[in-house]
Write a structure and sequence with these properties.
Layout: H1 2-17, H2 21-32, H3 37-43, H4 50-89, H5 108-121, E1 126-127, E2 133-135, H6 136-139, E3 164-166, H7 172-180, E4 185-194, E5 205-215, H8 220-234, E6 241-248, E7 251-260, E8 277-286, H9 288-293, E9 302-309, H10 310-318, H11 331-334
Parallel strand pairs: 1-4
Antiparallel strand pairs: 2-3, 4-5, 5-9, 6-7, 7-8, 8-9
The protein binds phenylalanine.
Phenylalanine binds near residues 169, 248, 251 and 307.
Length: about 350
């Protein structure tokens, strides 16, 4: 009995000193754990006279419950204290100014591409995307550029083999559409194009958008109206257009379209090299030979086509003088286009 009382007192005394749940759980094991002191008492049972054993067992079990309940009480107090301390430590000062998160934004080329697509889609165009790796047939022959044609020198093309190449323009999109779809056709074909060219105004990879309209009675007038409207949407209503005669094997007649310089408004400056005009795209009435090669009756239908460079329009719109800035991923440059800033 003495030993039992001693153990009870010892447990109380030790419990007094405990100041954390960790200590408490360790101490609990020391007393009431599987190899603990109280369990140790039960092991001494064999030395107790048989008639007293039952009584002894009862008292020890009572002691075990009693000690366990002391621990439970203390545990409640400690858990509450520790939770409070944890919350205190994690307290947030809601009066402090917030930490501003940086947000990403669309790349200027995507901003302008979306604006161009939107402008034309508003006029009823659909989008058709062709492959970046294409054949000699789609890139040249079907566009009235035969193998020995001098117009092949207009583009420095990357070849994989004699017949397989990285498309140097999006014009194969015209052919692929005409082969698949019967007129009326009104499509845009955006995508990457590749040419062996690399300086401040040329990049070996750049983006074009091709436009094609095929229907009965389509003429150069429609092309002019369409592109005037496009320029008004992409630049502004003050920007004027100029159609210059030009040459492309796949259009006849062919034109190059200039807009009044957005920097000097036509007076002449370094951006427009003193001319007051900046070239933005190539276009024309689809060559009858091209329509026929793609299975369209050129006696019934006629078409117009245009091809523009997204980089070029982006550079003119935002006054960017070196095309390479568009591919360097300089955050300082790109963040200027973040409208949420
Ligand atoms: N494919 C021509 C180029 O890349 C542009 C163009 C497209 C011209 C359609 C006329 C008609 O330069």
């Amino acid at each position: 009995m003495q030993e039992i009382n001693n153990l009870r007192e010892k447990a109380k005394l030790e419990l007094e000193k405990v100041s954390s749940t960790k200590e408490l759980y360790d101490l609990k094991t020391t007393f009431v754990g599987k190899n603990g002191l109280v369990t140790g008492l039960l092991r001494g049972m064999k030395d107790i006279p048989a008639e007293q054993r039952a009584e002894f067992g009862k008292v020890v079990n009572q002691l075990k419950e009693e000690i366990a309940s002391y621990f439970d009480e203390k545990e409640k107090v400690l858990v509450e204290k520790e939770t409070f301390e944890k919350f205190e430590k994690e307290r947030v000062d809601i009066t402090l100014p917030g930490v501003k998160q940086k947000s990403g934004s669309l790349h200027p080329l995507n901003i302008v591409k979306n604006q161009i697509l939107e402008a034309f889609c508003g006029m009823g165009f659909e989008i058709f995307e062709g492959p970046e790796i294409d054949s000699d047939y789609y890139c040249f022959q079907a566009l009235n550029i035969p193998k020995d044609h001098p117009a092949r020198d207009m583009q420095d093309t990357f070849y994989f083999s004699e017949n397989v190449l990285l498309r140097p323009h999006t014009s194969p999109g015209q052919v692929r559409t005409m082969e698949k779809k019967a007129p009326p056709i009104k499509i845009l074909s955006p995508g990457r194009v590749y040419r062996a060219d690399d300086d401040a105004s040329h990049s070996p990879m750049f983006h074009q958008i091709e436009g094609l309209v095929v229907d009965k009675g389509v003429s150069l007038c429609d092309l002019k109206g369409l592109l005037d409207e496009f320029v008004r949407i992409i630049f502004n209503s003050e920007t004027k257009t100029r159609f210059r005669p030009s040459y492309f094997p796949f259009t006849e007649p062919s034109v190059e379209v200039d807009v009044t310089c957005c920097k000097c408004h036509g007076k002449g400056c370094s951006l427009c090299k003193g001319t007051g005009w900046i070239e933005i795209l190539g276009a024309g009435v689809v060559n009858k030979k091209v329509l026929e090669m793609s299975g369209i009756d050129s006696e019934v239908y006629s078409g117009l086509a245009f091809g523009l460079g997204i980089e070029r329009i982006t550079m003119i719109k935002y006054g960017i003088s070196d095309i390479r800035t568009l591919f360097e991923n300089n955050i300082k440059f790109l963040s200027q286009f973040n409208r949420r800033k």
